[in-house]
Amino acid sequence: MDRTSVMNQGIIQGLFDNGLMGIEIPEEYGGVGAGFTTACLCIEELAKIDPSVSAGVDVHNTVVNNTLKFWGSDELKDELMPRLATQHFGSFCLSEAGSGSDAFSLQTKATASPDGSYYTVTGNKMWISNAEHAEIFLVFASIDLSLGYKGITCFAIPKELGGVEVGPHEDKLGIRASSTCPVAFTDVEVPAKYVLGEVGQGYKYAIGILNEGRIGIGAQMVGLAQGCFDATMPYLFERKQFGTYIGDFQGMEMQYAEVAMEIEAARLMVYNAARLKEAGKPFIKEAAMAKLKASRVAEMSSSKCIEWLGGCGFTKDYAAEKFYRDCKIGAIYEGTSNIQLTTIAKFLKNDYR
Question: Catalytic: which of 96, 212, 299, 334?
Answer without folding.
Answer: 334
